[in-house]
User: Fold this.
Amino acid sequence: MNKIEVFLQNLNPREKFLFISFICLCALFLAFKIHDHFLEDIFQKTLVEHNYLALNEAKIENSHLKEIETKLTKQIKTEEEKLKYYKEKLHLFSYDKDFFNKKINNLSKNLIINEIKFSQENKNFIHYNYVSLSLNGNFKDLLNFIQNLENLPIA
Assistant:
């Protein structure tokens, strides 16, 4: 103890202040070192609290976005169904020779098609389309063909 007192007496006030502050700093570091990971515990608690709040907000936003996604997928499905329905209905009003030709060929499986002629005519600003057929086959098959042709959902 005598040596410390002699050492401190030989120091000027500025050196004494620096020495005391160095000792206090070492004491603080030793005190924190005794308690393992003291600063990590403090930072970990604050980080966990902030992460927990952010995690809850993210979960709420995620659930909200999933609800919106399900609503939008349902809406897209209904819109696609409407679009498909409208395309089918619009196709009925379009004049497509290949479409009518395929339908007639599908219906006339047991018949022999001699001629299919498509024609167009305008009368009084109204546009008319005509299909002329020349078929050979059994009378019963011809009647079935005419009946199926009348029941087609194209007109």
User: Anything to note?
Assistant: The beta strands are 112-123, 126-136. The chain has a mean pLDDT of 80.
